[in-house]
Each structure stands twice: as C-alpha cells, then as structure tokens.
Amino acid sequence: MSENLKIPQHVAIILDGNGRWAKLRGLPRTMGHTEGCKAVEQTVRDCADLGIKYLTVYGFSTENWKRDDQEVAALMALFRQYVKRLLVIANEENTRVIMIGDRSRFDDDLIEGLNRLEEETKENTALTFVIALNYGGRDEMRRAVTKMAEEVKAGTLDPSEITEEAISAHLDTHGIPDPDLLIRTGGEFRLSNYLLWQCAYTEFYVTDLLWPDFTKDELKKAIENYNGRERRFGGVLKP
Ligand code: IPE
Ligand code: IPE
Ligand code: MG
C-alpha cells in the first residue's frame, strides 16, 4: 500500500455489521456492539495519527429505537460506559468530541456525560471526533426548519435570508466541513438516513468487512481508493 496518502479533511463512517460479527461467532449481538466500541476507539486513534481533522461516526440512528428493548438497553449501557472512556482517549489524542443528533431522548445521566465530554475536550485541537447518536438526517433537517421558522416568526430571520449557508448553519453539523469520504462497513450500499444534506458531494467507499474487524489498514485502503477518484462538482473538478 502506498504510504504517500493524500489525507481527506473529513472522513464519515457508517459502522455496520456488529450483529453479524457476533452471530458468526455464536455470540449475542451485544457482544458485537462491545467489540464495535473497541474498533471506534482504535479508529479515533488511527485518524488522529493519520492527521485527519474530522471523523464522524454513526453510533445510533433515530430508527435504531425500533430494535428490541433488550438490545436498545444494552446499547445505552455501552454508551454510558464509553462516554467516560472516550473522555480519557480524547484527551490522550488531543481530540475534541462533538455529539450530533437529538440528545433529549436519552436519560439525564447520559446527557450529562455527553455534555461533559464536549465541555472537557473543547480546547483540543488535533482531531474533531463527531459522534452521531439518536441521529437521523431527516430529523436534523426537521429540527433546523423548526428553528428557522421560529426565527422568522420572531422577526430575526427574513425568508429571503434562507440560503444554503443559512440552512447548513442551523444543522447540528454547523461549523464542520462536509465529509470528503464516507466509509460504510457491512457491505450495504445505502445511506440509512446519515448526513443527507452534508453528503451531497461526498465520495463513497463500501467494504464487506464487518465493523469490529475494521483496521487502520482498511482505513488506509479506503483513503487510497478515494485518492484515485476525480472529484467532480457539477461537471467541473472540485476545488
Ligand atoms: C451497527 O451494527 C451498530 C448499530 C447500528 C448500533 P448492527 O447492529 O446494525 O449490525 P448488523 O447490521 O445487524 O450486522
Ligand atoms: C445504520 O445501521 C445506523 C448506524 C450505524 C448507527 P443500521 O444497521 O441501523 O442500518 P440499516 O437498517 O441496515 O439501514
Ligand atoms: Mg446493521
């Protein structure tokens, strides 16, 4: 593999395949999620090491509440444990953590943990690790439209000021550049309601690897593949 990689500024990941990984080994699905958390941890370190500036990972979608109660409860227990662990890793890796999605549906202690994680890492400057929890692209847009409608009603926003930039500024990802590369593990070719607005011109890379098996080598393979793309934007080369 070539070591002369041109590193994208923002890599987004749909981590998929935890359940299948566990099933292949005759283990409960939740064991797949535990292993998946370890792979997230390692990926944060690998991205910091490669000089990637933004990593956005899809941890739990607005649709994932439909899974059976036991699996949802196990995931919440894992998130509780991992917000604490992430605080240590983020500070070791000079990484700022930001959560996108609607945190209001989580229990108070998890909300507090997420707030603390953001607050205590906000001065870190190497990598920005964006974690999407109770996130759905449609729900994010719905919340942005509600905010803009309230501003119009209050007289602080004129409908003529609703530009693409203004919409971006009302999304959870405000201030974060759009992803350059989207990686999906688990082999499915779909967005599953992830970053619908932000991925308008993102390059996709799909691998059959199941998320707990994801490694730095696979990350580099995705970047190498991305380096071979001619990024076009409306028919002209993307600046
Ligand atoms: C992704 O793995 C993790 C979450 C969505 C929380 P899955 O749990 O979707 O694993 P598969 O797709 O069933 O194998
Ligand atoms: C996407 O995975 C959501 C997350 C990775 C959090 P899913 O397994 O939930 O998506 P679908 O059902 O295959 O589209
Ligand atoms: Mg899945």
Structure description:
This protein has 239 residues and is α/β, with parallel strands linked by helices. It has a single domain, classed as Decaprenyl diphosphate synthase-like (Undecaprenyl pyrophosphate synthetase, 3-Layer(aba) Sandwich), CATH 3.40.1180.10. It is built from seven helices and eight strands, in the order E-H-H-E-H-E-H-E-H-H-E-E-H-E-E. The strands form two sheets. A six-stranded parallel beta sheet has the order 3-4-2-1-5-6, sandwiched between helices. Strands 7-8 form a two-stranded antiparallel ribbon. Helix 1 crosses helix 2. The longest helix is centred in the middle third of the chain and has 24 residues. The structure holds 3-methylbut-3-enyl trihydrogen diphosphate (2 copies) and magnesium ion. One 3-methylbut-3-enyl trihydrogen diphosphate binds next to strand 2.
Keywords:
binds 3-methylbut-3-enyl trihydrogen diphosphate, globular, 8 strands, binds magnesium ion, 239 residues, two-stranded antiparallel ribbon, six-stranded parallel beta sheet, 7 helices, alpha/beta, Undecaprenyl pyrophosphate synthetase
Helix content: 40-55%
CATH third-level topology? Undecaprenyl pyrophosphate synthetase
What's the CATH C level?
Answer: Alpha Beta
Named once each, the bound ligands are: 3-methylbut-3-enyl trihydrogen diphosphate, magnesium ion
Reading the helices and strands in chain order gives EHHEHEHEHHEEHEE
DSSP strand content: 15-25%
In short:
By secondary structure, this protein is of the alpha/beta class.
Secondary-structure blueprint:
Elements: E1 10-14, H1 18-24, H2 29-50, E2 54-61, H3 69-92, E3 95-100, H4 108-121, E4 127-135, H5 137-154, H6 164-170, E5 181-184, E6 203-206, H7 216-227, E7 232-233, E8 236-237
Helix pairs in contact: 1-2, 2-3, 3-4
Bound molecules: 3-methylbut-3-enyl trihydrogen diphosphate (2 copies) and magnesium ion.
